[in-house]
Write a structure and sequence with these properties.
2 copies of one chain form a homodimer. The first copy, chain A, has a domain of 151 residues: Jelly Rolls (Sandwich), CATH 2.60.120.10. The first copy, chain A, is built from 6 helices and 9 strands; from the N terminus they run βββββββββαααααα. In chain A, the strands form 2 sheets. In chain A, strands 1-8-3-6-9 form a 5-stranded antiparallel β-sheet, covered by helices on one side. A 4-stranded antiparallel β-sheet of chain A has the order 2-7-4-5, with no helix packed on it.
């Protein structure tokens, strides 16, 4: 077998075990478009699940747990289960509101907490350019309108993609520490695999690997054991074999 | 609150209960690009998980459980856990190979069966236009190359989207009956919600709903109870209230 281009298997070896993936299931609930003909004012309320407000065109204003958020142009607001929020604005305002559940939560009626309880409302907001989210919401709206036997499953996949697009750009300190551990584990695995893929022609020893990862040899060995249940040297051999 | 456009909540009421979604978790494993400089020939083998071969440019030939599949141009082959398969072809062949797991399977080492055991190999093949899959694979390859702490989660979402794109176009009889029940349940719910959204201005009685759904009144009542734990009339009231 001759292969011109290298296989693109940077992430070939995923972490193994309970932290292998997102420990929840995401379920699309509904999506709406709001484009008021006159001033809009919706009083303060809360939900047991998540809501994403994507402002395509302002002006939009809301309060999140009493803190005022102004989006004169475009932007996005993440509302956690239990967050008190209202909405107001006027033409030419146009926004999308997406609701979804993250299960299992603390009860059947409430989504899981993937953010810290005491996040500053401003850290739940992306002000300005939301182009990458507009594309995702356009696909959500199309699939919602299509509404066939497969749509709910497809919408679940699209919401999962939206959630990870969001988690990537939101400030890391607002992500729940337990979820952050899982994400960091994948970051460690990705960094190690990238190092391996750069070093296929050479044989790295533990010291070289640790230096490249900016870790002590002891820390690298410990994290590697926790994440992959093996040593850095054995993992490198496995990586080369799998390619 | 004045809203110019109606809310687009066709799927507002999802089926409730154990059949509410896909009862598995999908985990990306790896993705490779194969573009051989000379004739390619990989002997017969099998995997414990799923593999999707996306042929961007043929000629590609394989055997799936002894049946020969020829893709002179473009196409896609779905390989189930345990399917015996080989690969051959020659320049200008270019294909993508994606592996993923569906958990929980019958054992930790084997993915769940979402297809029937005895599917005809030809029914696992899409010959010809695969444009919608090329777009998804381009995103998978981009994310795989990006390889940061979030990539594995994003790849899981993309594979889930790919899986449902596939299930939508594959022949329904090859889908596992248990999964087909869940899909059909969502089809029933989507049809009912679409009927409701068309009939917001009128008050449908049970006979009119049953006629519009091409079902007997008794069947509609039974399926509605199974899917939504309520009667068609009460569901319509709830639907109108939620809008």
């Amino acid at each position: 077998m001759t292969v011109d281009q290298p296989h693109l298997n940077v992430l070939l070896s995923r972490p193994i075990g309970p932290a292998d993936g997102f420990p929840y299931v995401v379920r699309y609930q509904n999506v709406a478009v709001v484009e008021p003909a006159a001033s809009l004012s919706i009083g303060s309320h809360q939900h047991a699940h998540y809501e994403i407000i994507l402002v395509e065109r302002g002006p939009y204003r809301c309060h999140v747990n009493d803190e005022q958020i102004d989006l004169p142009g475009s932007g996005l607001v993440v509302l956690k289960p239990g967050d008190w929020h209202d909405d107001s604005g006027e033409p030419p305002l146009r926004y999308h509101a997406l609701s979804f559940r993250i299960i299992p939560g603390p009860s059947a009626e409430r989504s899981a907490n993937i953010f810290i309880d005491e996040s500053a409302p401003a850290s739940q907001v992306i002000a300005g350019d939301v182009t990458q989210f507009l594309g995702l919401f356009a696909r959500l709206q199309d699939e919602n309108r299509r509404a066939d036997a497969f749509s709910a499953f497809m919408l679940d996949a699209l919401v999962l993609e939206l959630l990870w697009t969001l988690l990537r750009v939101l400030p890391a300190p607002i992500i729940h520490p337990a979820l952050m551990v899982t994400i960091a584990r994948h970051g460690f695995a990705a960094d190690l695999m990238r190092l391996f893929s750069r070093s296929l022609a050479t044989t790295l020893d533990l010291g070289q690997m640790a230096a490249a990862m900016s870790m002590s040899k002891r820390s690298l060995t410990t994290r590697c054991a926790e994440t992959f249940q093996t040593s850095p040297a054995k993992l490198l051999v496995r990586y080369k074999m799998e390619r």
